[in-house]
Structures are given as C-alpha cells and as structure tokens.
C-alpha cells in the first residue's frame, strides 16, 4: 500500500470538539454561583447573634462593625468620618433600601445604638440587625 492510500482511509476531523470547553464553563459558573453570596459583605472578623430568619432577594446595604471599631459598607472599608456621607450616597439610589447592620454579638449595646443613629442620619429608613441562621435541632 502506498502512503497516500493509508492517509486517505482515515476520516478527517471537520470540527473542533467543544465539549471540554462547555464542561469548563459550567464548572466556572458553579464556582461563581457558590462564591458570589460571600462577596457582598466585608471580611471583618465578627460573630453574629443567632436567630431564625427569612431570606429575601431585595437589594440591601450591608454595614459591618468589627469589635476593634473598623467599619465597612458592603465590601468597602470606611473611615468613621466618611461613613455617613458614603452611606448617604449609597442610599440615594433607593431610600427604601434595607440597611443590614452586621455587628459582633460581644460588642457593647451602645455601639449598636450609635450605629443605628448614624445610619438614620445618613437617611436610612429600613434598618435591621444581621444574624446568623440557627442550626435546626434534631
């Protein structure tokens, strides 16, 4: 048999196999869906109080107050003197946006009341306290 006869007997590949590309895209999509809820709050070390809550899909603003006094609006660390103006700017989009206060459960109560007052000064109309979901008792 001649060389050109051997090569002509093999089927030619007419297209590119995109199945591995689709598999990779689906894996990346799942990773994004799992990690995206973690990206809407600041990475400050706090322990939230435990409560049973109902989750909503409405837009909200997360305000995090660490035990050492550091503040964050959503994921942005904020200096105390710029807190009210920056929160006011966030609330301009929709004044009825829920402001969720994430404050460590060991923090003094006065810190919470002062933070609530500062949020009201910024124009927040809906304020709630962030909690950690209680584990179901078996």
Q: Please name the CATH topology of the largest domain.
A: Nucleotidyltransferase, domain 5
Number of helical elements: 4
Overall residue-averaged pLDDT value = 79
Distance linking N and C termini: 75 Å
The major pleated sheet works out as: 5 strands, mixed
Overall SS class: alpha/beta
Question: Major sheet: order of its strands?
Answer: 4-3-2-5-6
Under CATH at level 1, the class of the largest domain stands as: Alpha Beta
Number of E-type strands: 7
Total separate domains: 2
Low-confidence residue ranges: none
The CATH architecture category of the largest domain equals 2-Layer Sandwich
How do the strands and helices of this protein lay out in sequence?
Elements: H1 3-9, H2 19-35, E1 50-51, E2 60-65, E3 71-73, E4 76-78, H3 83-91, E5 98-103, H4 109-121, E6 126-129, E7 132-133
Parallel strand pairs: 1-7, 2-5, 5-6
Antiparallel strand pairs: 2-3, 3-4
Descriptive keywords:
138 residues; alpha/beta; Nucleotidyltransferase, domain 5; 2 domains; five-stranded mixed sheet; two-stranded parallel ribbon; 4 helices; 7 strands; 33% helix; 19% strand
């Amino acid at each position: 048999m001649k060389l050109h006869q051997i090569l002509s007997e093999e089927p030619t590949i007419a297209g590119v196999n995109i199945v591995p590309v689709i598999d990779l895209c689906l894996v990346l999509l799942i990773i994004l869906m799992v990690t995206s809820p973690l990206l809407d709050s600041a990475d400050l070390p706090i322990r939230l109080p435990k409560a049973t809550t109902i989750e909503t899909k409405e837009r909200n603003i997360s305000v995090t107050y660490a035990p050492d006094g550091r503040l964050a609006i959503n994921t942005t660390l904020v200096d105390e003197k710029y807190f009210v103006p920056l929160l006011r700017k966030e609330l301009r989009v929709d004044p009825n946006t829920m402001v969720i206060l994430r404050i460590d459960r060991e923090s003094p109560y006065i810190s919470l009341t002062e933070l609530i007052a500062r949020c009201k000064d910024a124009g927040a109309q809906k304020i709630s306290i962030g909690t950690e979901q209680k584990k179901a008792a078996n």
